[in-house]
Automatic annotation (TrEMBL):
PANTHER family reported in the protein's UniProt record: BACTERIOFERRITIN (PTHR30295), DNA PROTECTION DURING STARVATION PROTEIN (PTHR30295:SF1)
A Gene Ontology cellular-component term: cytosol
Keywords, comma-separated and alphabetical: Iron, Iron storage, Metal-binding
Species whose genome carries this gene: Kitasatospora camelliae
GO molecular function ontology, one term from the record: ferroxidase activity
PROSITE patterns: FERRITIN_LIKE (PS50905)
Protein name: Ferritin-like domain-containing protein
Coiled coil: none
Amino acid sequence: MADDFVIDVTRIRDEARKKMADGPVTDTYGLDTAKVIAVLNDVVATEVVCWLRYTRHAISATGIDRAQVAAEFTEHAAEEMQHALRAAGRISQLGGEPDFDPATLAGRAHTDYTTPAGRDLKAMLEHNLLAERIVISTYQEIARWLGDHDPTTRRLIEWILEQEEEHADDLTDLLAE
Ligand SMILES: [Fe+2]
Ligand SMILES: [Fe+2]
């Protein structure tokens, strides 16, 4: 009920003044920032691994009869890199350090860097579709966990999730052809 909604502006003004060095992270932040940063760093690792896989497959799929698939892989790769950068930017806003350390990327990623032998287009499409289906599930869980506690990070994850669902749909269409 709107009648029950009262904001204690005096208290919020006092709290806002206390930890100015925390920048956008205020007293009303509903989660442990260290935990959110750790989860986002796993998202960064996942997106970099997806960028690597798509880029590798785009190069392998290049050829006259494969131009459509190669173009799709290239487009997806560019979007995965954007996802990594956006997640890294949010980590920085929350006062954390984005982790692009190649030594630990594969271990932190939700998906695997897999490349089928040779130039098997169908296998490449399947490897990427499996990866997309994995991130669709893990990102849904992250969005639910964030809930109302950190709406900005949740909306970022939801935006990424929407694109992953488009990727999975694109790959499904190509596999059906
Ligand atoms: Fe992505
Ligand atoms: Fe994707």
